[in-house]
C-alpha cells in the first residue's frame, strides 16, 4: 500500500524522561513518514492524569506548535482517552501517542494475511477504549499517522460493530494460529534444528538472514522494516541442515496490544531449539537494547534455551569503540558469542561454525548394527544427524553417527 499522496506531517515529540529517550521515537516518526520539527521534555516521575504534561509545559508546547507550524504532536507514552481528549482541546492540534504511531508503522509494513489480521486486531482493540469522549479528536482523524492500514474504519461506528469485527478477526487469527501450530508440530517431528533470530529492531537481523541463506527478505535501515516471520534453511559443515527463523524486532515500551496480537509470531522463538540474539555492537544504547530483548523473551516465557549472541555491525566500530568488544563479558545469558558484519560478510564463517558446534554439543554418538529391514531408521538418522561410518556387512549395516540426544538418541541406545 502506498501513501505517497499524503502531505508530510510536521510533528513535535513530547516525553517525560530525557531528550536521549526521544531518539527512538524520532526514528519511529521518520519511519511513519513524519518530519520531527522540535522536541520537548518535562522531567516528571508521574505524568499528569488529565493532561500528561503540566499546565505550564502545555502553554509552552502550544507556542512551539504555532512557531514550528506543526500539524500534530506525538507523546512517548500511551495516553489515556482523557489525556488525549484534554490535550486535543487545549492545544487545538492532532495528538498522537507512541502506540498509535507504532500501529501506524505496522499497518504500513504488514504484508502477509496474518500480519494484516494482527495489525487490524491491535488497531481496533486500541481504538475500542477510545470511542467515548473523543468528539474533537475523532473529527481530526481524516488522514495521516494513526488512521490508515487494514483497520481503517470510521471511529464513529458504535462499539457493537467494532466488537463484531474484533470477534471475526480473532476467529480468522485462530485459524492462522492453528495452521502455524500444525507447521510447528510437523517441524518438531522433523529433527532439523531450528534457530530463532531475535534482537532489537534495526540491528541487521534480516540482512544476516539474507547473507547466511541467500534469502530475499526486505532489509532496510528503518525500524520494523519487516514484520512477518520468515524461515529459511541453511546447510552447515558436514552437510548439517538447520532452519533460521527471523522474528519482528523488539523495542522499548512495546504496546501490550501488539504483544497480544503478535504473540503467535513472537512465540516462534519459544518453539525454536536455539536463540540467535543479534546485537548492534555499534549502538550507543547497546546494553539497554540487550536488556529490552531479554525482558521481552522473559515476558513470552522463553527460557532455558542456549543463546548465541551475534555482535553485528563490527564494520562500524572505530578504534575508540574497541572496548565494546568486551561487552559480552557482562552478557551472562550468552552461551556463545560471535562478532560479525552482515553487511561485509566478516565473521560469517565463524558464525556458521558456532551454529554447528552448538548443534553438535546437543548430540549423542551412536554405534549400532542395523538389520537390512531397518533402512527407514537409517534414513531418519541420515536426515536428522550426521553419519560418520556406514558399513554394509553380511549381517546388517553398521552405523556410527551423531543424532539429537533428546529427539532420537535414547531410542538408538546400544543397550
Topology:
Blueprint: E1 10-15, H1 22-32, E2 35-41, H2 55-68, E3 72-75, H3 81-91, E4 94-97, H4 98-109, H5 113-128, H6 135-140, H7 159-189, E5 194-199, H8 205-213, E6 230-235, E7 241-246, H9 256-261, H10 263-266, H11 268-271, E8 274-280, H12 286-299, E9 307-312, E10 336-339, H13 348-361, E11 363-370, H14 375-384, E12 386-393, E13 396-404, H15 405-409
Parallel strand pairs: 1-2, 1-3, 3-4, 5-7, 5-8, 8-9, 9-10
Antiparallel strand pairs: 6-7, 11-13, 12-13
Description:
The strands form three sheets. The chain has a six-stranded mixed sheet with strand order 6-7-5-8-9-10, with helices on both faces. A four-stranded parallel sheet has the order 2-1-3-4, sandwiched between helices. A three-stranded antiparallel sheet has the order 11-13-12. With 415 residues, it is α/β, with parallel strands linked by helices. The longest helix is centred in the middle third of the chain and has 31 residues, at 159-189. The protein has helices at residues 22-32, 55-68, 81-91, 98-109, 113-128, 135-140, 159-189, 205-213, 256-261, 263-266, 268-271, 286-299, 348-361, 375-384, 405-409; strands at residues 10-15, 35-41, 72-75, 94-97, 194-199, 230-235, 241-246, 274-280, 307-312, 336-339, 363-370, 386-393, 396-404. The model is unreliable at 133-142 (pLDDT under 50). The protein contains 15 helices and 13 strands. Helix 1 links the parallel strand 1 (10-15) and strand 2.
Amino acid at each position: 500500500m502506498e501513501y505517497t499522496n499524503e502531505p508530510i506531517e510536521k510533528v513535535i515529540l513530547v516525553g517525560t524522561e530525557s531528550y536521549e529517550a526521544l531518539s527512538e521515537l524520532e526514528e519511529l516518526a521518520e519511519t511513519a513518514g513524519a518530519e520531527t520539527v522540535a522536541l520537548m521534555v518535562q522531567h516528571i516521575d508521574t505524568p499528569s492524569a488529565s493532561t500528561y504534561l503540566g499546565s505550564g509545559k502545555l502553554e509552552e508546547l502550544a507556542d512551539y506548535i504555532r512557531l514550528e507550524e506543526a500539524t500534530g504532536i506525538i507523546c512517548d507514552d500511551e495516553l489515556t482517552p482523557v489525556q488525549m481528549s484534554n490535550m486535543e482541546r487545549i492545544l487545538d492540534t492532532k495528538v498522537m501517542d507512541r502506540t498509535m504511531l507504532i500501529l501506524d508503522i505496522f499497518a504500513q509494513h504488514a504484508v502477509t494475511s496474518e500480519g494484516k489480521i494482527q495489525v487490524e486486531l491491535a488497531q481496533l482493540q486500541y481504538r475500542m477504549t477510545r470511542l467515548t469522549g473523543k468528539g474533537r479528536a475523532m473529527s481530526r482523524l481524516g488522514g495521516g499517522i494513526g488512521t490508515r492500514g487494514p483497520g481503517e474504519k470510521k471511529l464513529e461506528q458504535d462499539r457493537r460493530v467494532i466488537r463484531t469485527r474484533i470477534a471475526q478477526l480473532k476467529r480468522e487469527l485462530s485459524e492462522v494460529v492453528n495452521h502455524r501450530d500444525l507447521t510447528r508440530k510437523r517441524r518438531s517431528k522433523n529433527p532439523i534444528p531450528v534457530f530463532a533470530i531475535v534482537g532489537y529492531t534495526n540491528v541487521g537481523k534480516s540482512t544476516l538472514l539474507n547473507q547466511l541463506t541467500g534469502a530475499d527478505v526486505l532489509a532496510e535501515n528503518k525500524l520494523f522494516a519487516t514484520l512477518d516471520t520468515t524461515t529459511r534453511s541453511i546447510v552447515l559443515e558436514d552437510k548439517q541442515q538447520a532452519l533460521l527463523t527471523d522474528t519482528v524486532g523488539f523495542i522499548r515500551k512495546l504496546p501490550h496490544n501488539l504483544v497480544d496480537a503478535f504473540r503467535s509470531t513472537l512465540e516462534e522463538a519459544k518453539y525454536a531449539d536455539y536463540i540467535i540474539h543479534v546485537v548492534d555492537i555499534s549502538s550507543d544504547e547497546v546494553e539497554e537494547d540487550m536488556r529490552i530483548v531479554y525482558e521481552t523473551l522473559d515476558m513470552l516465557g522463553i527460557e532455558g534455551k542456549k543463546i548465541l549472541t551475534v555482535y553485528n555491525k563490527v564494520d562500524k566500530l572505530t578504534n575508540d569503540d574497541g572496548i565494546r568488544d568486551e561487552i559480552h563479558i557482562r552478557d551472562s545469558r550468552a552461551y556463545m558469542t560471535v562478532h560479525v558484519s552482515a553487511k561485509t560478510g566478516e565473521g560469517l564463517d565463524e558464525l556458521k561454525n558456532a551454529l554447528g558446534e552448538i548443534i553438535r554439543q546437543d548430540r549423542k554418538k551412536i554405534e549400532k548394527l542395523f538389520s537390512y529391514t531397518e533402512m527407514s531408521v537409517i534414513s531418519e538418522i541420515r536426515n536428522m544427524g550426521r553419519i560418520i561410518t556406514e558399513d554394509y556387512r553380511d549381517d546388517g549395516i553398521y552405523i556410527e553417527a551423531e543424532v539429537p540426544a533428546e529427539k532420537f538418541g535414547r531410542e538408538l541406545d546400544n543397550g
